[in-house]
Amino acid sequence: MAKDDLAQVDGKVIDALAGGLYKVQLENNNFVISAKLCGKMRRFNIRVVVGDRVSVGVSPYDPTHGLIMFRHK
Asked: What is the pTM of this model?
């Protein structure tokens, strides 16, 4: 599935787990999903810490997992 097919939602990182996983609380319905960093964020060493606002790409097939696409300033 291409990154263009993912639904973009905003959220806030509430927990950093082992293995590069993060718990993200979505802003629109206070739903908590697990997300990992996308490849470009890992490549350019963009750090995500607890409390950051992020944009998450969520698959329509499995809405409990996502990719962190962008960290807001």
From this structure: 0.89
User: Which two three-digit tokens encode residue 1?
Assistant: 């599935």
Average pLDDT, consecutive stretches of 10 residues, N- to C-terminus, the chain (73 residues): 84 94 91 94 95 95 94 93
Using H for helix, E for strand and C for coil, what is the string for the chain? CCHHHCEEEEEEEEEECHHHEEEEEECCCCCEEEEEECHHHHHCCCCCCCCCEEEEEECCCCCCEEEEEEECC
Question: Residue 35: how many CA atoms within 13 Å on its side-chain side?
Answer: 36
**How many C-beta neighbours within 10 Å does residue 2 have?**
5
